[in-house]
TrEMBL record:
SUPFAM superfamilies: Insect pheromone/odorant-binding proteins. InterPro entries: PBP/GOBP, PBP_GOBP_sf. It comes from the Eukaryota. GO terms for molecular function: odorant binding. Residues 1-26 form the signal peptide. Keywords: Signal. The gene is Dyak\Obp8a. The lineage of its organism: Eukaryota, Metazoa, Ecdysozoa, Arthropoda, Hexapoda. This is Odorant-binding protein 8a, isoform A. CDD domains: PBP_GOBP. It comes from Drosophila yakuba.
Length: 160
């Protein structure tokens, strides 16, 4: 009898606890591509100050050594930039959702054109970091750049 009473009290306590626990807020489900972007962003941003990180999160890419190194690290880590050939246009399109998300007829020529316009092949290793920065800034000036800014903003804010 005493044991039954303790069991009932314990059960009532558990029910009260469950009623007082706020409902779980579902976390947004992120795609594997969004998680890869966030991982690369975090790994490459380890040495940035809070102000520098905020500036990059706001898509403000000044011509500064920390920005150049961050962008080269970011795109290389995602394997969407190769020092020998620049941005991997086809892989970028595929990684960012392909035809469903990007106008491929517009994206491929824009990315490849920026690679060619800004290329500095055959120069010292620092030139590859500079080339990546110049090609990225070039791509940002195209419709692909506008799409990239919107997409990264969504990823950073948990909407993608």
């Amino acid at each position: 009898m005493a044991m039954m009473r303790r069991s009932r009290i314990w059960l009532l306590g558990l029910l009260l606890l469950l009623e007082m626990t706020p409902p779980a807020i579902p976390l947004p489900i992120r795609s594997s591509q969004s998680l890869a972007l966030l991982r690369a962003r975090d790994q490459c941003g380890r040495e940035l100050t809070a102000a520098q990180r905020l500036q990059l999160d706001r898509m403000q890419y000044e011509d500064a050594p920390h920005v150049r190194h961050y962008l080269h690290c970011f795109w290389s880590r995602l394997q969407l930039w190769l020092d020998e050939s620049g941005f991997q246009a086809q892989r970028i399109v595929q990684s960012f959702g392909g035809e469903r998300r990007l106008n491929v007829e517009q994206a491929l020529p824009a990315i490849n054109g920026c690679n060619a316009k800004t290329s500095s092949r055959g120069l010292r290793s620092q030139a590859e970091v500079d080339w990546c920065f110049r090609a990225f800034i070039c791509v940002l000036s195209t419709p692909v750049g506008e799409w990239y800014k919107r997409h990264m903003s969504d990823v950073i804010n948990g909407n993608a």
